[in-house]
Design goal:
Elements (H helix, E strand, L loop, with lengths): L8 E2 L4 E4 L5 H9 L17 H13 L3 E8 L4 E12 L4 E9 L7 H15 L6 E7 L3 H10 L2 E11 L5 E10 L3 H14 L1
C-alpha cells in the first residue's frame, strides 16, 4: 500500500500491531470470551474461523484495501481483539475504522477509547485524512453509543445495506469525523483517557 503501510500504534493501555497469523490462537480465545460470534447483529468470526478471517484480511491488505490490526493488552502480551482501517480511499484521503471487536472482558474498558484515539490520531496526523468513517448495524446500540461517545456524527442510515450471515437485512448507521472536527474530538478523548 502506498498511502497506508503496516504500522504499530501503542500507548500504555493498548498496542495495535499489524495483524499476523501468529495472533490466531489468542484471537480465537478472545472471540470465545462472550460468545461474540453468536451476536446476530454483528459479524465477529467464530473461534474456528479466526485463521480464515486473518487470511482474508491479510489478502485485503496486500490488495491495498485494508490495514488490519490486532489489539494487544500490553500487560499480558495477549491479543484481545482486532480493528482495521478499511474502505481506504487514498485519492480522497478517506478511510473507515471498522471490523472492530474485543473479547468480552475488554468491552466497556479504556482499551477501545485508547485504540480509537491511536487510530484517529494516525489518520488525521501522518495520513492527513479529510474524514474518517465508522459504521455499525442500526440494532447494535452498544456500538452506536460507543461511536457517539467518541464524538462522531451520524451522517445517515443506509437502509437494507447488506445481508447478514443469518439472512436478515442490515440497516447501516454511517458516522464520520472530519479533519476540522478532530481537535475537539481529540480533546474529548484525551480528557476521558485521563479520567480512567
Amino acid at each position: 500500500m502506498s498511502w497506508i503501510s503496516p504500522i504499530t500504534l501503542e500507548n500504555d493501555v493498548v498496542r495495535l500491531a499489524p495483524m499476523s497469523r501468529e495472533h490466531a490462537d489468542d484471537l480465537a480465545s478472545a472471540s470465545a470470551d462472550g460468545a461474540l460470534s453468536e451476536l446476530w447483529y454483528t459479524t465477529v468470526p467464530a473461534p474456528a474461523d479466526i485463521p480464515a478471517d486473518i487470511e482474508r484480511k491479510l489478502k485485503a491488505q496486500a490488495d491495498g484495501a485494508m490495514a488490519p490490526f490486532t489489539a494487544i493488552d500490553p500487560s499480558s502480551g495477549r491479543a484481545v481483539g482486532m480493528t482495521t482501517y478499511m474502505n481506504i480511499d487514498a485519492v480522497n484521503k478517506r478511510l473507515e475504522i471498522g471490523s472492530t471487536w474485543y473479547a468480552g472482558a475488554y468491552q466497556r474498558t479504556a482499551l477501545n477509547t485508547n485504540a480509537k484515539y491511536l487510530l484517529l490520531s494516525h489518520a488525521f496526523g501522518p495520513l492527513g485524512c479529510n474524514a474518517v468513517e465508522l459504521r455499525t448495524h442500526f440494532m447494535n446500540l452498544q456500538s452506536r453509543r460507543a461511536i457517539e461517545r467518541l464524538g462522531a456524527k451520524l451522517d445517515g442510515v443506509l437502509r437494507n445495506h447488506m445481508i447478514m450471515p443469518n439472512g436478515t437485512l442490515r440497516d447501516t448507521c454511517v458516522y464520520s469525523i472530519l479533519a476540522n472536527e478532530w481537535p475537539a474530538v481529540a480533546a474529548n478523548l484525551e480528557h476521558r483517557m485521563r479520567r480512567r
